Records
---
Amino acid sequence: MTSSSPVHIVGGGLAGSEAAWQLASAGVRVVLHEMRGVRGTEAHQTDGLAELVCSNSFRSDDAANNAVGLLHEEMRRAGSLIMRAADKHKLPAGGALAVDRVGFSDEVQTTLLAHPLVELRREEIAGLPPAEWGSTIIATGPLTSAALAEAIVKATGAQSLAFFDAIAPIVHHDSIDQSVVWKQSRYDKGESADYYNCPLDKAQYEAFVAGLLAGEKTEFKEWEQNTPYFDGCLPIEVMAARGPDTLRFGPMKPVGLRDPRTGRRPWAVVQLRQDNALGTLWNIVGFQTKLKHAEQTRLFRTIPGLQNAEFARLGGLHRNTFLNSPHLLDGSLRLGAVPRLRFAGQITGCEGYVESAAVGLMAGRFAAAEANGGSPSPPPGTTAMGALLGHITGGANAATFQPMNVNFGLFPPLEGTLRGKDRKQALAARALADIDRWLAPAKLAAE
């Protein structure tokens, strides 16, 4: 059965292309709107659907030990076009899934255009999609056009969109050394266990500042050059360059804190704040940075209590348009202020090619369920897709929300004391069993 009214999709990147495929596969007509071919972007080189702008790697393909590899496998089981094209155009890359970017994009575009339920329109949507379109998915990515971004702000409020990532590193809770850190808020305001505190003496602080100033930094991309820093999201190395004590009077200030082991105030303190509802991820407060990732890992592990830190995300600062999704989107990715609109891909606050496509896959399935007279059914939170969806739509703290890759820290914890590889493999096995149960009704209906 084919749905009579089409679902419109704005944006032909990985998320929009995957959403279109999921809808068409469910018998729903799709009109896919892509402005490239009429108007380019600062980053894209072609007008091809699902163009890979930066790397050609989809990262690890290890479904048993790596959260992104697990996401690959879940998407394959859900009939993902993006994963099918990636597998067909795979290049040698060890345990990673790297693709021939031209062959991959051509495969996605050719497959979509060959489907009788998919129509591609080359045009810019300079504002909110019109009400007469009905169900619409916006998948315009991190370089959403200014006109559409302005329209989203008008519909949802001035604080709904961010245009600059100020990304602080995030640490897995079980890698924090509990024998070194202690929990306390400054002057014991609020809950006394709001923050973990990592104490530094004078020598440790001075060495840390020197490391920040000497560390190798990434450069802004060409289209980011004129995007100014905001005082509220200055990189820590920029603050450190303003004077040796700047950080001690900024994010590393020790006032109102006492180390229970010594009874004294440390020279400086690095604070970590809970970053997800499960308490498995902790954000290093105020540590957005342009240091290269290897430098961050090396330097941040010199902080007492973080010497064995495992990072779910490292810091960064770059131009990016994304929604404050935990505040704005419901559990099926609909915009609360305008429910006929769904969002998908990087504009929702996920990070990475595969994550973007996975959110597109879910948005397409949710929209297809509605178009076919049913109700959206989100994947279980124990799956990679469900964990990513849960983080975007409510698991993350809306006040500090920043884009994130999928990682095992987003998954509900297992009972027991499994650690390391055993824990990851148990989480992956649970996820695959649960994704199969979620997909089973749709597979039976298709047979």
---
Amino acid sequence: MKNNFLEKYINTMDYDNLRRLMKKIIIYLLIIFLLVVNLPTTYASEEGMNNFNHLITITTKENYLSINEEFTILGDSNESYDSFSVWIQTGAYDIDLLINSNIPDSKVENGNIHIFNISSFGLLKEDTIEVILTYKLGKDIDFSKTVLRNTTSVSVKFNGNEIFTSTNLAKDANFQLKLYEPTEPTLDWYITVLIVLLLVIVILLTLYTLRKPKKVKIKEPAGVSEELLNTKKNLLMTLLKDIEKQHRSKQISDETYNKLKEKYKQEQ
């Protein structure tokens, strides 16, 4: 029934009205097509603009890296533009942009390219634009950057130390920086360890040298009779007395006397 109604409606229309309707439909389709095609390439409208003195400052915080980028933009025509694009590596968050101290109206992302709406600023390409871009990255990662415009100079500082500089970078040039290098023991560290080991060895040798030898008491074998022990003891006592007599008569020296006396006492 719907088809019959449509056929009746078309039959009642004249061909002039039909042609006008078809033209409107085609125009609307063309407008939609142009909008869809141009949306991902909005940043291409920034051709003819150059970066000057791009300074990137990276600072280590407790749980993240703080990135601050400052640079100047200057174009070579009096055309106005509605958007401004920057390239930011994957994983960035808390992204903020200031253009001449103004906050953009909105932002869209196309991969690593962030496109900011600045249509309300009324800027021309020939105007000098001061840009400040800030964002955060996860800690202990490599830093990466792609420049979207011809850039006269780039400088990167990490925790106050300049780690990268380059001049006359062409559009779409990319560079990556390792922020953290594996630490290796230095020669001073090896020398310190060696000195400590030598000191320990010297101390151990000194203690071993000064240590007095323990006196070993000779134990009698098990099963020896009491009579034998008494006989041995009497003999030793006789020997000690004899040694003492010889010592008194100066027949043996003090040193010999002391050694023999100590030896026989241990055997008692």
